[in-house]
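Hey,
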Amino acid sequence: MSGAAGSSKKMHEGAQRSRPRDMIHRVQRAWGESPFYQAQLKGPTPDRLFFQPGDPRKPDKDLAISLSRGRLALGDESVDCEGELERLWDLPIPGAALFAYLQGFSWLRHLEALGGDGGRAPARVLMKAWLDRFERWHAEAWAPYFVAERLVQLCAHYPLVLAQTDALWRSRVLTSMARQTRHLARTTHRAETGFDRLMTSLGLAIAGYCLPGCEGPAERGLEMTRRELRLQLRPDGGHVSRNPSRQLKLALRLQTLLKTIEARGLQPPGFLRHMVLRASAMATFFRCPDGRLAVFNGGYEDDGSAVLAVQSFIDPDSAPTNFARHSGYHKMSAARAVLIMDTASDLGSGSSFKSSGSLHFSTGRSRIFVNCGNGGHRGPEWRQALERRAAHSALSFDGTDMTVTFGDASHRRAEEGKGQLLEFEREINTTHEARATYMRRLFLSADGANLRGEELLTAAPEELLAHAVWRFQLHPTVRASLARDRRSVLLLLPNKEGWRFKSNCRELRLEKSAYCGEGGAPVSTEQIALGATLCGRENGERCAARWALQRLDAV
């Protein structure tokens, strides 16, 4: 009975906390639908766009064909309006990933891949259906982030919607865009997260400079961008989220704003070009030899075309180094091999992903060690699972009842003719009085054919060692075979190159895993696991797991 009473009390307290939020939402809805607010959105009607921003991301023709037929799937959600495109807006549930995708209008990019009327016809049907439902005002569809994304996409792909159309249709679309821009100037501060506020302010500035008569909102968006960048961009150019995909999106959007201002014949503010160069250099830091991004902190491999567009913008003097001091990443390159390691502390990072100490390793265009990515579009269970340390190529403690927290991290680096050495160390705090320490040492040979690691756990209690596991997540394109003696794993890459992973561990495990780093449905893959209890001991109190990944022709 006491448990039921406690649960009832928590539900009551939760309901009490939600009441003020519900009241605020009801007031905002009533104000947005009122004629008084609608009157504030009136202004000059644009007759054209001053500038069409570019969109470097690669379109997906298969997605466009499916969309044009009324079918769309994203994560666990899917809709099928059986060819009646107008109904597509009525099927997704507000607040769900599919609703957010449609309201962001990024599907315009994919429809362009169909060419001619094949893309224009469904785009205009969907645009008209959107105007019929949401043109005046809508609480969810007019959320600040959605409005900003929608305006940027409409500016970038406006010929798809407006080319070869009558004046009445063009006036309706451009008037709606101008009204949304004025609405955004009043609501940008309501964006839910810091990154959303930054993207919303950038979208406001871009749309304002593209639309005649919206220069006032553009100036407001520019000022809000300056303020948010001061809060969210670190001195090395990295975003505080430490998410490579967000970093790429930020760099692209900053470049778009700079080009839009210059296309208007205006002088960009002094801070903007400097911020563009810093953010772009940091985005390029995560570029792998296959042209896409390394997967860390909820990011994805992302679009190689977008990465290339960012890279082409960088001044050689601001090219990224191999150490992002403030963002907490090290990068080691040798011949065709690239190793990136997260050396920041999880404490106060602003990210829910426990990726500290994790690594990415690739050779040529083949990825070998990766992190599992972001499953947020698959539902809360997937996201929670992929946030854990066990979903990274790092140390994790599986199934322990002990309270385990990590302290501040420290790292050191050295380079010599034979290769590069990186050390990462941090304290482990448990319910025991003794404080354990963890050190990861990585050495990459100069020819990129030999990666060696040493994992040291010192003063760790036996209960903790029993649950300590080092995991090496393999990319889905890697085929792994466990040797008969279970002391090594043979890895075959897509280019038919062979690598061998071996360890001083008495027995390696090859386990099933899932990879969400490509942004779509989870892909089945495998992981190599080293249990601390099966590794060597030194001086009675230190567990030492040593491993090596070697290219077979270099062994």
